[in-house]
Amino acid sequence: MTPLNSSLYQKRIAVAMSGGVDSSVTAALLLRAGAEVRGVFMRLAQPEVDQHQQRAVAVAAHLGIELTVLDLAGPFREKVLQPFIEAYFAGLTPNPCVFCNRLIKFGLLLETMLARQADFLATGHYVRLTPAGRGGMALRRGLDPRKDQSYFLCRLPAANLSRILFPLGEKRKSEVYELAATLGLSGRHGAESQDVCFMGEQTVADFLAARLPTGQAASGRIVSVAGRELGRHQGIHRYTVGQRRGLGIPDASPYYVVALDAANNRVVVGKPEDLLRKVIRLADLNWLVEAPPPLPTRLLVQLRHRHQPAPALVEAVPDGTFTLIFDQPQRAPAPGQYAALYRDDQLLAGGEILPDY
């Protein structure tokens, strides 16, 4: 099902507009469908926010729609930025886009626009929504496999799906650029959005180094999986599970980061086989369906955005966590990242990967 149908005629739709091509085309398509469209630009803690806002203003003016500017920098720092920083210094690898989608874009922004009488919030995500039983909605992968963004939505509350629209879910990126040209938007929208909007030109390591907590050690030991010291690290925030570069440990075959032991300020390294995990644990599983399947059950599991989904048995544990038992061992699952659970192309749930070290 595409949301661009007669049921949207005269519906009040708020479109999250960044000034980029995807959100610009989203607004234009909804206008063409006869909806009453209002743009909304979120001022967060991103660099060059004024330039992004100016592009959104220009696109809204071209389309002839109202643009509301919301300053959400404070909530963004509190709910996304600070937890991201704290997690990294705790030896985790968080995904700020997952935080932001749940708490800001489809949390605070959605609540704000619904309170201002919008019927729906629309975004330029490449995902699809289809009707599910009892009036619910099923969230599915976008048609374009190279642009599918469903993984980043694995923490959305199921109850919010009925008030969200994703007009680009049935389209490929090449079609969106063609539509931008047809709709007179070429040259008005900005470049593709950054993966981490608040980084700018900085690397994650440099961003975090400038925010080193008081008392946090800037260096420590690099040890083998057997505990033998092999070198020194320059802060665990500079390393992620699976990393090879920058270790500075000569050997006949390369070492990789296997774990980050924040409690002892150690980077644990090993060989490729040490990265493989057949069993991982999840905390706080968020279901995007009204009736979760009875466990244990077999599902497809995606461990990061570009990870090839792999079949696994999902089991509940009495302590409230969940276990994934993969058919084949998976490389470098990173604690703090999210595992997204699918049945075919439908996103069912998402949970945080727990450390095993």
Write the layout of secondary structure elements.
Layout: E1 12-16, H1 21-32, E2 36-43, H2 49-63, E3 66-71, H3 73-89, H4 96-115, E4 120-122, E5 127-131, E6 137-141, E7 164-165, H5 173-182, H6 204-209, E8 220-224, E9 229-233, E10 256-261, E11 266-270, E12 276-287, E13 297-302, E14 310-316, E15 322-331, E16 338-343, E17 346-353
Parallel strand pairs: 1-2, 1-4, 2-3, 4-7, 8-11
Antiparallel strand pairs: 5-6, 8-9, 10-11, 12-15, 12-17, 13-14, 13-16, 14-15, 16-17
Helix pairs in contact: 1-2, 1-5, 3-4
Order of secondary-structure elements: EHEHEHHEEEEHHEEEEEEEEEE
Alpha plus pi helix count = 6
Low-confidence stretches: none
- As a percent range, the share of strand residues is 25-35%
